[in-house]
Fold this sequence. Notes:
Largest sheet: 3 strands, antiparallel
Number of helices: 12
Radius of gyration: 33 Å
Order of helices and strands: HHHHHHEHHEEHHHH
Helix content: 55-70%
Strand content: under 5%
Structural class: mainly alpha
Strand order of the largest sheet: 1-3-2
Amino acid sequence: ISELQNDETEAEQDEKTETVQLKLSNDNSNSTDDPADDAQHAVKDRTKRKYSILRRMPTMAGLTSSWWTAIQNFWMVTQHNIYHWLYPKHYLRSRGLSLLEIEELLMLCPLSTRQLCALMDEYLRLCDINVFDSAQNHEEMHDITMEEMMQTIYLRYNPWKERIQSLFTQDLKQYAADMDMVRDYVDDAMTVTFHDFCKCLSVFAEQTPKASKIRFAYKIFDIEDDGFISPQNAFDVLQSVVGDQFDDDQLNKIVHKTFETCSLNSNG
Length: 268
């Protein structure tokens, strides 16, 4: 729009300049001995410029179509969010969960029903189901692999993604052992149900107790799973995060200073 306005302004300025030039001199290349011919040439030039501006303008039909599509998408997302807000349990049931399963998730995970709806939308996206497409409402969710789970928007760009995946795998195996469950595997990859998805990601929820979050963060640094964070563990984790931004000497200084400050015996 600004470009079109500039073009129109330039056209008006050119029109004024040509009018002044016609009055003051006949040196223009299009000028003749007859002032009427000069005026006629000026009108033709102005008409050409205006038509060139009109050709650059998008068609009204194209603008109307793009605006209507944007309005439709906005209304579809708004409707979906309102449905989450007013009828969260009804939405979860429409996606295949029973009331008993919903109550079980609310009891085991520090999540609200609206948070469960948001996780349901993300899980369905990982199942290649478009929640905004009414034609896919009948499609049921299915199990996903751990690798697919790590592509969720909550973990995709996490610098500790590989370590978190390892911790989630350990926790799910331990949970299956405690409950005498047999976990399914696809091509040696552990499958993840919606219940597993919620249990794993609930550690990042606001309502999760701080002690649980600290314990999970400690496990990220405890790479050897021996209950201690050694200087080498801290160095490896920092190196995986900062990459080539710091050299090894700088990282060692950071680790050494940290252990001097936090470790009672300076060894982990």
